[in-house]
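Bench notes, afternoon.
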Amino acid sequence: MTGPLSALDHVMVSATDLDAAAKLWKSFGFTLTPRAVHGGGATANNCIMFPDTYVELIAPAGAGTSPLAAGIAARPPGGLGIAFASNDAAATAAALREAGIPTQDPLALSRPLDLDGKVETVSFENVLFESGLDGVIAFACQHLTPRLTRARHEWQLHANGATGLAEIVIGADHPATYRAALERLFGFDHVADAPHGLSVILDGIGLAVMTPVGLAARFGAKAVVGLAPLPGLAALSIAVNEPDAAGAMLDMGRTPYADHHHGLVVAAKHAGGVIVEFAEN
């Protein structure tokens, strides 16, 4: 059985100081998109683009208010949310409702983008729903202007050799309580038991729900130090062509890291409240 969602669009990492967060992730060897302020001025972002997904660094912008800005301000910095991919926001909303998930009508949003002195408008529609993924903001996103989302190819070229998200991990004391929500969202047959929790594969990208013990086993005991309070989005595993290149960038930025089972791991306290792993493709 297939659920109403099957692919990841992007993940959100919150910050109180977007300038500091951008500087930190640049020091990891990532290329960031130009700063963008969302309509109304309540939030702003910089993004780390990959061919099919991206990481959004987001913070309150101070000009206006919104539920998202209030939600960011009310919690410590770190993993914030997961946006699932939609090719048709209205159809996704209908499919979610058919699966018995309370869902809002698609919400049209936009942000300006300055390209060589010309201001373009990046437009998208979000579908907000009651995901059942405790501690994580979750929604579906349809990009109405996809060419503008990745308007510059160089935005996808990263000095650390990163090519995309490999896995995202939700940390929770009792992963089993997430099973029903995962089955509604992605389909009964797509949810599997995994060490210390549950897992789903979304178009080649892993989504796991893992206990704190599991997080320490997967990423190392020191990696969980500084993690934003659970439940919540706890870790991002990012695929790289060559871990040595990622290590060189971390060394240049004087960022502490550990060479763990699957790759190089930056502890949450050194990555703004979320564990970041660099894993070989």
